[in-house]
Amino acid sequence: MSSLQVDWKSPITRRIIRSYIPDWVLVVVMAAVFLGVDNIAPFRREFSLEDKTIMFTHSARDSVPMWLVAIICCIIPIIIIAIISLGLRRSLVDCHSGILGLCVSLSLCAMLTTVIKVSVGRPRPDFIDRCQPPSGSSDPEFGLSNYTICTTPADTHDMIDGFKSFPSGHSSFSFAGLSYLAFYLAGKMQMFADELGRTYKGFLFSFPIIGSLLVAISRTEDYRHHWQDVFIGSLLGLGCAYFAYRQYYPALGRVTCATPFKARLDGFKGRATNLQVPDGPLQQPNYGANNELPMIDQPLQTVNVDGGDYITQHNVR
């Protein structure tokens, strides 16, 4: 039977599905925190009108707009993961684990990046052009200037966004999505586990990394971020990607790195009186090469359950 055919009525299958609900809830919570914090006005750090690092020209357009970053770092990885897991490996478990890990990486990275941005309030490289201080303005004799010297209203988007330089959101988000995809590809190719040093694997692995690097570099070309913003943002995204990947897949040096962790069945206890579920952790069923959900191996039987409920009993393989 194809590994894409799952007995959705199986109590074990339902148990597996329920075990991942907290993960998806956490993804939604982190995304909600990101959206909420992103609407908070950032800390307005003092600055010097003579600081050359914030005197670059402001451009209204980004070389890589955020909608394109979302496609590159979210939609494209989802499509590639689905093609590999469903089309090549024919594994629903792998597809779910791969996409869930990607969502954890992106939502965690977006939340952390936004919280840091709002808290730090670093002026962007083009801040003086956004600020438009009056002609002839200068810093106080024994201090720095603040946003009140600007002729641009403080509540405009340009001014609010002007204090969100550190870290780079484009850089962190691109590395969170594309680095995760690179780890996923490396695992499927057993790039670090086969000890054969096949160059083409490294070539395929590097493609997503190069893509995220190009997105990050574009932020300095647009004068949206200082190099430190891009560097730290990239490290943040890379860290989130690896953290999320390791929640659902073995280390890349393991020979089992091509398959996701087995389904969460520890502690499962059936309620049927005649199922004879033993005490202690439930033995993991044999999932096969791809750690699949339970497949129907014999005709279903209806059994009576304590409390008047009914479930189906069958052998799994």
From TrEMBL:
InterPro entries, alphabetized: PAP-like, PAP2/HPO, PAP2/HPO_sf
GO CC list: membrane
GO biological process: phospholipid dephosphorylation; phospholipid metabolic process
Annotated keywords: Membrane, Transmembrane, Transmembrane helix
Subcellular localization, as worded in the UniProt entry: Membrane
Xref: Pfam families: PAP2
MF terms (GO), sorted A to Z: phosphatidate phosphatase activity
SUPFAM superfamilies: Acid phosphatase/Vanadium-dependent haloperoxidase
Primary location recorded for the protein, binned into one broad class: membrane
Entry keyword Transmembrane helix: yes
Keyword Membrane: yes
Residues in Phosphatidic acid phosphatase type 2/haloperoxidase domain copies: 100-245
Topology within the bilayer: Multi-pass membrane protein
TM stretches of this protein: 21-44, 64-87, 99-120, 169-187, 199-220, 226-245
Family: Belongs to the PA-phosphatase related phosphoesterase family.
Name by which UniProt lists this protein: Pap2-domain-containing protein
Organism of origin: Lichtheimia corymbifera JMRC:FSU:9682
